[in-house]
Amino acid sequence: MKFPRLLQNLFQTSSDSHQASSDVSSEERLTRYLFSKSGFKKNANNSMEAKAAAFLPHDGETSVFRTSGLSEDMIWSIGAEFVERPRQQANPASMKARADFCADIVADVNRTFGQGLKIEPDTNVHPLHANITSWPREESLRDLIAVEIARASAVCSKP
pTM, whole model, 2 decimals? Predict the structure, then answer.
């Protein structure tokens, strides 16, 4: 079983620059892995766009990964190994796509809506994992914030 060890070494090497600074930079690319078509749609010109549902918090958090500087293969590998595989026991849905966005959208929605959303590293899952936290209690406000994050995202379908 050399493959898992190779993956672990690759993930460790790729995450070293992020571990040096535990704070998430506003310039960092964040990735949200999508498992349901309720999280994205094809628009009129046949490109895909994220839906707000993809970013709504679950138990007060939205899980993301810090993917700046990673190759496409590495981004998809992280999703398969650390998101899709652990979900398989509880929910057999496979990963369909991902939504990439710049962390600065969180600061933008905080200014626009007077909120205090945070991007907090959570390395228990993976060295590059983080959560968007401190969502407002009001459902309508959460929906508006999720719409803004979705608008700022680029969706890539799984190869």
Answer: 0.85
